[in-house]
Inverse folding.
């Protein structure tokens, strides 16, 4: 069930009524759990078995791990949990990819091998709920958290429908404590939740699906070169589309949870105003980047084992982060590019830090004599000013957009063709996008960048409190009216495929 | 009352006011109520194919069979309503392949042939669009089915729930923005052209039938499409490849006891002339029948079917569709020998085929 569907609207209204009836808290939690299973089963009922398997195994494995004091059996139990979770993920998500590459490798070695193409359907949300259950088991193993005694609380933590299929990737401490006490939304939470739901749907249905998706699909869908303007517009369209699609989903999820009285963590913080790639990853898919940081980068050694290992750890984390998105070399390249940019940024920061320190020392000793010379040799543009920062944010977005080419293109050849078209390397490309397409993409891009920049150091909650109530209402009404004008759109969210 | 609550109440008032005003505006435009001919409506109709029979055939093809075969008239004549699966502007071959591969389909199939679309190469837009529908059907989730049934309750009451004509996307597309040289945004049909009924029947609106200016607009759209269509002749090997794949599918259906007929619906004026030039009958239609060894009905061969004029050169007006269908059924029965029960001619069923609120 997708949030942008009539079936969800009906489901949500019925659930809200049920959740606000004077029932015992346990009964309400059972309602939420059953509703979450229904929410999931309405896609493809058999896949609910995988969800159950993952839930049951991790619940009992975590208890056994917590009870066991000896190191070897604890490791063995953890391995069983990891094998099951990652095994399922690998089979469903990477089975075909591994087989394809294995066949290609044998072929390169001159061995003729033709495997039957596996007909594997990817269960919706498997990448997300696998990471949710893994974080629980790993936290218990690392004695960071106690195992949850209530199966109901644990099952609801894994299955709670707002985050189940596309995040935010919740941690045990985010949600389980909230299930221990009765929760019902206050009027304030309910209204703000509905506002967030409207905003999320507006971003998804109006902006991503109606204003941007067609242009991105057109440019990335043709097998021939296009004009530089078309290539750039296609990439910017996808850049806006993926943000509005995914952040729209997260906003809906947070809003829906709030209507039920639960708080989910933020997943996006105006990423297209990021200054640099480390800032970008503090703002884009925050729950995934913190997951990778805590369960992969830091266990690999993080930045504690010297400069070289830090760069290696960064690259491993980003390459695997790329692969998490899908079984394709293009995702690996996307992750690799982000890794390279992160490493480059770290290198520049270290180098400029050293330079500043040595300059400061030198300046102190020659302060009187060469003050004028030092001032004259400084760069005329201050990168610390607001304009300089804006320039750096645009540079970051430019590089992020380059990486999106690999993320969106169906294969490496197409990605290279788009890139070469963007920079005018391939002459005589086709003109594809109409005046209206160009108008839509450029307007949305400018508005998106302006909004992100204006909101860079703020939040929606702060903005909502600052705006006059009638102005907030006007904005809300315009979003809903455009949503109604756009009409039913039951397109899946892009991140469902991951 | 908190400011947030005040905001939400004002929002509700503004949105309700807009919805009422918007609905009133579109009702006052006399465009007629039209259903969304989307994937779900197609999938809902596709579910019916297992109950097909000579009097209740499955129809695939492009827009002409959707306009010209009046389903209500068919029902009034034979006692049963056909299952309309044709898709506007698409090649029916992916649908034919799909039906041929479905082991449970053993019914009767009418295939509408508009040569330019029927012979559209694999990978072309008309072929891809039809393939999308075919691929959607097995993935039609329970959730989408529930949404479809809720939409089905709302659609007859709300004119503005018309994705094809009144949603944000078509409204933006129709903005008078100067075109970018070298690009084409696709055909822009006037809103008054046609409406779609729940049984997937396409019907020209009263305004379209009455107003020659609107008819000229649609004619201009056909010319526009023609100007943007590939000009090169199809290689013979490609035609043969298509014929082979069609024959394979037809044979598969026949092997299970099913029956197939090809039909060529009327076209008119410069459109028909252009079609005769681009797709000569002997090279396409005659070869299709011979290659697949399947009966076919070409409108021009029958005075009863060729007496009609198409207001915009390509489709029949609703009144003509009624008599055309009445004339077509006996010809079909005679040509195929299918046991189609034909009731004595009744009053034209045009009123039955008009949508509610008209």
């Amino acid at each position: 069930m997708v949030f942008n569907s009539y079936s969800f609207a009906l489901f949500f209204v019925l659930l809200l009524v049920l959740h606000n009836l004077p029932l015992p808290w346990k009964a309400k939690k059972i309602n939420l759990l059953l509703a979450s299973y229904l929410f999931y089963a309405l896609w493809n009922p058999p896949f609910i078995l995988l969800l159950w398997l993952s839930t049951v195994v991790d619940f009992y494995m975590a208890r056994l791990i917590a009870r066991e004091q000896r190191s070897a059996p604890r490791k063995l139990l953890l391995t069983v949990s990891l094998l099951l979770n990652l095994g399922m993920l690998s089979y469903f998500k990477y089975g075909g990819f591994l087989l394809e590459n294995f066949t290609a490798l044998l072929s390169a070695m001159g061995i003729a091998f033709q495997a039957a193409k596996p007909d594997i359907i990817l269960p919706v949300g498997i990448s997300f709920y696998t990471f949710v259950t893994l974080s629980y088991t790993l936290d218990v193993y690392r004695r960071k958290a106690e195992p949850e005694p209530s199966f109901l609380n644990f099952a609801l933590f894994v299955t709670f429908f707002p985050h189940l299929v596309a995040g935010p990737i919740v941690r045990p401490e985010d949600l389980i404590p909230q299930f221990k006490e009765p929760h019902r939304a206050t009027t304030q939470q309910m209204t703000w939740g509905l506002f967030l739901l409207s905003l999320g749907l507006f971003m998804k249905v109006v902006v991503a699906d109606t204003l941007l998706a067609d242009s991105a699909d057109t440019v990335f869908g043709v097998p021939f070169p296009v004009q530089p303007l078309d290539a750039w517009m296609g990439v910017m369209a996808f850049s806006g589309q993926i943000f509005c699609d995914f952040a729209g989903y997260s906003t809906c999820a947070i809003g829906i949870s709030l209507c039920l009285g639960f708080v989910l963590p933020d997943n996006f913080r105006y990423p297209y105003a990021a200054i640099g790639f480390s800032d970008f990853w503090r703002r884009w898919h925050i729950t995934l980047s913190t997951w990778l940081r805590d369960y992969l980068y830091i266990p690999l050694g993080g930045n504690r084992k010297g400069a070289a290992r830090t760069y290696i750890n960064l690259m491993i984390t980003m390459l695997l982060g790329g692969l998490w998105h899908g079984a394709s070399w293009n995702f690996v390249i996307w992750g690799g590019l982000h890794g390279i940019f992160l490493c480059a940024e770290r290198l520049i920061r270290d180098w400029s830090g050293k330079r500043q320190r040595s300059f400061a020392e030198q300046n102190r000793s020659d302060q009187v004599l060469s003050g004028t010379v030092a001032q004259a040799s400084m760069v005329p543009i201050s990168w610390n000013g607001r304009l300089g920062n804006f320039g750096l944010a645009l540079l970051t977005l430019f590089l992020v957009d380059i990486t999106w080419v690999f993320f969106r293109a169906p294969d490496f050849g197409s990605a290279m063709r788009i890139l070469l078209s963007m920079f005018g390397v391939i002459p005589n490309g086709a003109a594809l996008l109409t005046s209206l397409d160009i108008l839509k993409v450029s307007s949305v891009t400018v508005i998106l960048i302006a909004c992100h920049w204006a909101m860079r150091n703020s939040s929606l909650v702060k903005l909502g409190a600052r705006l006059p109530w009638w102005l907030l209402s006007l904005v809300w009404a315009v979003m809903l009216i455009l949503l109604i004008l756009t009409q039913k759109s039951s397109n899946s969210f892009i991140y469902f495929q991951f | 009352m908190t400011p947030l609550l005040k905001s939400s109440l004002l929002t509700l008032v503004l949105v309700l006011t807009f919805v009422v005003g918007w609905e009133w505006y579109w009702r006052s435009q006399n465009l007629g109520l039209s259903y969304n001919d989307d994937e779900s409506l197609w999938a809902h109709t596709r579910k019916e194919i297992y109950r097909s029979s000579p009097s209740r055939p499955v129809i695939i093809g492009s827009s002409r069979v959707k306009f010209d075969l009046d389903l209500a008239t068919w029902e009034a004549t034979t006692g049963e309503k056909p299952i309309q699966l044709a898709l506007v502007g698409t090649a029916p071959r992916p649908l034919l392949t799909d039906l041929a591969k479905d082991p449970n389909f053993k019914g009767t199939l009418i295939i509408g042939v508009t040569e330019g679309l029927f012979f559209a190469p694999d990978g072309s837009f008309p072929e891809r669009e039809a393939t999308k529908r075919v691929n959607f059907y097995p993935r039609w989730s329970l959730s989408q089915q529930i949404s479809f049934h809720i939409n089905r309750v709302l659609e007859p009451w709300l004119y503005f729930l018309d994705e094809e004509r009144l949603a944000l996307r078509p409204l933006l597309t129709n903005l008078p923005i100067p075109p970018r040289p070298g690009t084409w945004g696709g055909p822009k049909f006037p809103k008054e052209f046609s409406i779609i009924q729940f049984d997937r029947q396409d019907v020209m609106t009263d305004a379209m039938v009455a107003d020659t200016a609107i008819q000229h607009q649609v004619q201009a759209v056909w010319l526009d499409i023609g100007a943007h269509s590939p000009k090169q002749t199809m290689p013979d090997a490609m035609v043969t490849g298509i014929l082979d794949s069609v024959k394979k599918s037809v044979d598969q259906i026949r092997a299970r006891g099913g029956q197939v007929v090809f039909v060529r619906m009327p076209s008119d004026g410069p459109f028909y002339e252009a079609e005769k030039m681009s797709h000569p009958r002997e090279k396409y239609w005659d070869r299709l029948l011979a290659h697949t060894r399947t009966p076919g009905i070409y409108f021009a061969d029958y005075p009863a079917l060729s007496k009609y004029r198409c207001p915009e050169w390509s489709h029949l007006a609703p009144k003509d569709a009624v008599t055309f269908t009445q004339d077509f059924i006996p010809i079909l029965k005679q040509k195929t020998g299918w046991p189609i029960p034909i009731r004595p001619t009744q009053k034209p069923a045009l009123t039955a085929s008009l949508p509610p609120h008209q």
The longest strand of chain B covers residues 259-264.
